[in-house]
Amino acid sequence: MTENGPADDCIFCAIVARRAPAWIVYEDAKCLAFLDLFPFTRGHLLVIPKRHVPRLTELPRSEYEEFFHALATVCRRADRLSPDYNVALNQGARAGQIVFHLHFHIIPRYGEPNPFHQSARNRLSDTDARALLRELGDG
Ligand code: AMP
Ligand code: ZN
C-alpha cells in the first residue's frame, strides 16, 4: 500500500473501487456512505472517506470538513427513517473495530433498548476525575 493509496486487503477500499458490491446511498468526491451488510437496525449506514485511513486520528485536518459534511448529510437522510439514531465510531480492536478503514456508523433507533443504557454505570469519583484531567488535559 502506498501512503495515500488503497489498502490491498481492505474491504472498504474494494467498495470504493467498485471491486466489491455495496448498497451505496451517498457519494461525493471524497466520501461514500453505504448500507451495513449486517445491520443492527433497519437502515444502519456506514460513512467513510474514500481514502484509506485506518483511524479518525489519522485523518488529516484538511479532510475534516469534507468528512463531517458527508456525515451530516447522511445523518439528514437517516432522519427520513427515524429522528433517533446513534452515530458511532469504533476505534481500535477492543472498542470493536473490525474494519480498519475509518467509518462512522449511523444506527437508526426505533424504540428498541438503547445500547448506551444496557450496563450499570458508577458515578465518576473526584479522585479519578483529577487523575484523568492530568492524563487528558493540555499537559
Ligand atoms: P466496525 O466493527 O466498527 O469495524 O464495523 C465494521 C462494520 O462493517 C460492521 O458493522 C460490518 O457489518 C460492516 N461490514 C463489513 N463488511 C461489509 C461489507 N462488505 N459491506 C457492508 N458492510 C460491511
Ligand atoms: Zn481501506
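^ adenosine monophosphate complex. The chain has a mean pLDDT of 94. The chain is about 25% helix and 15% strand.
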